[in-house]
Structures are given as C-alpha cells and as structure tokens.
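Below is a concrete protein record.
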Amino acid sequence: QVQLVESGGGLVQAGGSLRLSCAVSGRTFRNYAMGWFRQAPGKEREFVAATTWSAGVTYYGDSVKGRFIMSTDSAKNTVYLQMDSLKPEDTAVYYCALRTSGDIWSSASYDYWGQGTQVTVSS
C-alpha cells in the first residue's frame, strides 16, 4: 500500500507564498502521476496541478495557472507545490494524490490520497 503525507500549509496574507510538500512511502510504481487537489467548505474538490514524472509535463488548473508551480524530487520520493501570489480564494484543504492510470485531471482516477493540509489566505 502507498501512503501520502502532505505538509507545509498554514496562514498567510494575500500576496504571500507557501510551499506544500507531499511525501510518498510504501510501494513505488515505475510509471505513475502525482496530482494536487483542493477543497473549500461547501465546494467540490478542485484540480490544482498534476504531473507524470516520466514525461516531465505538468498541467495546471485555470484558477492557479501562472501562480503555482509543481515540482518533483524522485530521490526524496517527494512532490512539491510552490504557491505564489496567494489570494483569499485559494483558501482550502490541499490534498496530494497518486494515480496509476486514467485522466490526470480527474480526481476519480487517483488511487491514493493524503489527509490534506490547510491553507488559509487572509485579506
């Protein structure tokens, strides 16, 4: 089984930055994708970013494009989400997830999920 643990969330003022980390442990897969999703109270889970490590291509949701950068460190079994120019509407619980097959932008395609880390952006 695979375990995912997010960290790095916190409280930040609008315009500030945070870097989220997701540590992956357990069984490893030769070809898989990692994704970031977020969910605010009363809202649906939203796609943020995802990457296929072997392909080196990263996709971003429209709401974060140009502000967030996803990166990977295979040696550390860790993925990151650098969040700049944060806005109050970015406030949500952020989840990392691992997908072995399927559309990388669809939460239904992901097989393993972390417990989430809270990001709060104040005005």
The CA atoms of residues 41 and 68 lie 21 Å apart.
